[in-house]
Amino acid sequence: MTHCILFVVNYKVFNLYPKQKSMKKQFFFIFFVQLTVFAQAQSSLKLWCKRPSGNTWENALPIGNGRLGAMIYGNVEKEIIQLNEHTIWSGSPNRNDNLQSLEKLADIRKLIFEGNHKEAEKLANQAIITKTSHGQKFEPVGNLNLVFDGHENYTNYNRELDIERAISKTSYQIGDVVYTREAFASLADRVIVMKISSSKAGNLSFNANIFSPQKRKTITTTATKDLTISGTTSDHESVKGMVEYKGITRIKLEGGSIQSTDTSLIVKGANSATIFISIATNFNNYQDLSGDENKRAADYLYKAYPKTYSTLRTAHITAYQKLFNRVKIDLGKTNLVKLPTDERLRNFRNTNDPQMVALYYQFGRYLLISSSQPGGQPANLQGI
């Protein structure tokens, strides 16, 4: 589409000088080469494929803003948006150090220097290894499920993660209607935003509900048609769970209507729907859980909700690219960039695909930017 539009524009410009045929051809060739390189550069920073994730977590596309994270599965009938927040952990402030450690350290060193390694290991296990909690576990908030009845038979499916802009996109066609879902975890506004649209007015209908593995939780809707989840994290290794969390999902419609049940939201006949997801906890720091998770989640939502989708999207891209655009890498180009990412990955060992290496490197940077931001928690093996 981009090539066709630009070609038409250039063709009209060239026809202003019909007698200068050689210049026209040369000028067009330069533009064509530049546009082709530009298109390759853009597409080389996307992970994309032609099929949904199904229920395979590893195939979902990750988005995050350092505080909130989501895995976008890209399923057609039942979209899964797996949600978490950087401070939702089991347990509560506690000490798990072994008080004998300092007292026995000299003895352990002496045994090591004498070559009595087994005795040193035995004493270390007694004096250094904790006798209480070995550490707490990161816990998910749950899944926001979007159910689209009648979307079983679809064509022209595509999903992608644009790591240059930190935006996930899913598109498919049913009959003569094209459906598009675009999502990002805003670095600027601290909420997750997804816009769902149909190419024909009044054709968007779906049901939104929440599933969570959390044991101590409440899922409900409010008078203002917000879908909420709240609760307290789990106990672990004798440490009482005391992190309290609140998640709010609110939908802004263009056309159509929205109804609610006790635990779900129902959108009917809309042109588009923008979903806002805000999550917060009572966590202030490792020894202070006195925050107000309800106020925090509401404040983030109320600040973002009045803004247009375009405004939110632009602010997010700007904030993200201040970090991402600091590094460029070019290892060469091949036509393999035109293939879906999953195909390139399967064939990588038997092909020369330098752009896949560059994409992998930039994807690592994308994940780090998305999983940890100043003022939040550090990136870790169980983080968002």
Task: Record the SSE blueprint.
Layout: H1 2-14, H2 21-43, E1 46-49, E2 61-64, E3 68-72, E4 78-85, H3 101-113, H4 117-127, E5 142-147, E6 155-162, E7 167-174, E8 177-185, E9 192-198, E10 204-211, E11 217-221, E12 227-232, E13 244-254, E14 257-260, E15 264-270, E16 272-281, H5 293-304, H6 309-324, H7 341-347, H8 354-371
Antiparallel strand pairs: 1-6, 2-3, 3-4, 4-5, 5-10, 6-7, 7-8, 8-9, 9-16, 10-15, 11-12, 12-13, 13-16, 14-15
Helix pairs in contact: 1-2, 3-4
Widest sheet, order of strands: 1-6-7-8-9-16-13-12-11
The low-pLDDT segments are 1-42
Look at the structure and name the CATH superfamily of the largest domain: putative glycoside hydrolase family protein from bacillus halodurans
- Please describe the biggest sheet, giving its number of strands, its sense, and whether it closes into a barrel: 9 strands, antiparallel
Spell out the key features of this protein.
384 residues; alpha+beta; 9-stranded antiparallel β-sheet; 7-stranded antiparallel β-sheet; 16 strands; 29% strand
Describe this structure in words.
The protein is of the alpha+beta class. It folds into three domains: 2-39; 47-91 and 141-329, Beta-galactosidase, Chain A, domain 5 (Distorted Sandwich), CATH 2.70.98; 97-131, no CATH class. It contains eight helices and 16 strands. The chain has helices at 2-14, 21-43, 101-113, 117-127, 293-304, 309-324, 341-347, 354-371; strands at 46-49, 61-64, 68-72, 78-85, 142-147, 155-162, 167-174, 177-185, 192-198, 204-211, 217-221, 227-232, 244-254, 257-260, 264-270, 272-281. A nine-stranded antiparallel beta sheet has the order 1-6-7-8-9-16-13-12-11. Strand 2 (61-64) and strand 3 (68-72) form a beta hairpin. The protein is globular, with a radius of gyration of 26 Å. It starts with a helix and ends in a 13-residue tail after the last helix. The model is unreliable at 1-42 (pLDDT under 50).
